[in-house]
Design brief:
Layout: H1 3-12, E1 32-35, H2 40-51, E2 56-60, E3 78-81, E4 84-87, H3 89-100, H4 113-123, E5 141-145, H5 150-161, E6 166-170, H6 177-185, E7 192-195, E8 200-203, H7 205-216
Parallel strand pairs: 1-2, 5-6
Antiparallel strand pairs: 1-3, 2-6, 3-4, 5-7, 7-8
Protein name: Glutathione S-transferase N-terminal domain-containing protein
Domain GST N-terminal: 29-104
Organism: Nannocystis pusilla
Length: 218
């Protein structure tokens, strides 16, 4: 995805997914999200996660996927919170802001049909990649990134196509996770893909995608 395409997609969505908004209590247990990258409804859930500065374990379910799809969907997105399965993007957003925010849905996510249309237009910038043969890592990877950057989207697109589970450390503007990343690695540069299986720290789409293809591609 080009920078121009990323900028256009972000503009269509009024910049949502790039910064942290009103946050509330933190989850007691890890959130799990079943989704695929080019889905406009999944994008709405991802935008809410960035807005609320929530981390989530992503289990990618691309078209044709066999690793997570058989037991969990479609439809997508599907959020699992303390064992409760929540379908439908608007229901997921409402659940998240009520439980982990201030109860107010950010306005770009409460425009009714316009929200779906604009999210769909933003998602058109992404190719609809089907599942590719891959080897599943022993431990999930870790991605520090927001929703909006072209580099982050390219990395997530390949994580999705290769069905590689990863912990998404949502890192919008205003998130304290940038300082955590700098403390852990010595650099706050985003996006950052960390692979605990290979003790690898990849910055930027080129290095991250090459690592994914080389290490986990089938």
């Amino acid at each position: 995805m080009t920078r121009l395409g990323a900028a256009a997609a972000t503009a269509v969505r009024f910049g949502l997914g790039g910064s942290v908004g009103a946050t509330g209590p933190r989850p007691a247990h890890e959130l799990v999200l079943y989704q695929f990258e080019a889905c406009p409804f999944c994008r709405k859930a991802r935008e809410a996660l960035v807005w609320l500065d929530l981390d989530v374990l992503v289990r990618p379910c691309p078209p044709g996927g066999t690793r997570f799809r058989p037991g969990h969907g479609p439809p997508y997105p599907l959020l699992v919170d303390e064992g409760r399965e929540i379908h439908e993007s608007s229901v997921i957003v409402r659940h998240l802001v009520d439980r982990y925010g201030d109860g107010h849905v950010p306005w770009p996510l409460r425009l009714g049909p316009l929200t779906t249309v604009s999210s769909g237009l933003a998602s058109l910038a992404l190719p609809r990649m089907r599942a590719l043969a891959s080897r599943e890592p022993a431990r999930p990877l870790e991605l520090f990134a927001d929703e909006t950057s072209a580099a982050a989207r390219e990395i997530r697109q390949w994580l999705c196509a290769l069905e590689i589970p990863y912990r998404w450390r949502t890192s919008g503007r205003g998130s304290a996770k940038l300082a955590e990343l700098a403390e852990r690695t010595g650099r706050a540069e985003l996006p950052a893909l960390l692979d605990p299986n290979r003790d690898a720290d990849l910055r930027g789409a080129g290095a991250a995608v090459a690592h994914l293809q080389r290490t986990y591609g089938g």
